[in-house]
Amino acid sequence: MLDTLVRAEEAGIKLEIVGGLPTWEAHPVWKHQRQIDRIRASLPDKPRRRRGKKQTCACVHASDVYIRFPDGSLKRPDIAIFCREPDESEQDDVITLVPEAVVEVISKGYEAKDLEIGPRFYLAQGVKDIVVFDPYTLLVLHVRRDGTRRMVSTVKLSLECGCDIQV
User: Fold this and answer.
1) CATH top-level class for 28-166?
2) pTM over 0.85, yes/no
């Protein structure tokens, strides 16, 4: 499987497998990548205490890395936010740590993947916050188990893990 993912990458294709169904998109364009960089820059650079809890969240974030979810699906969120570093063994391979939050930046032509498939999938896998941003309309969707909020960028969001992010 990993060989297939590497070959897809070499061909300029971002391949994901959700519930056994492969989806793909071309590598992101400049505008897309700039938005990812801007959003990641808004994340804190030191651990934050979770609201009402003694433990802290390191707000570790990675861009466009493969994550194997509990159901075996492979996804590459534009931004994945974790409360700790993935294990050493995962740093050269697929990450199996479920992110606390993910951010997806919509690419033209691939809206359904990020708006229809992504949020439901991530919630089912235990991700607490899903943020979907459309850089063309400035729509920001913040999805949690208790509902979805629609906003217009630029907006500051407080994530369940204690990290704040500006989209």
Assistant:
1) alpha beta
2) yes
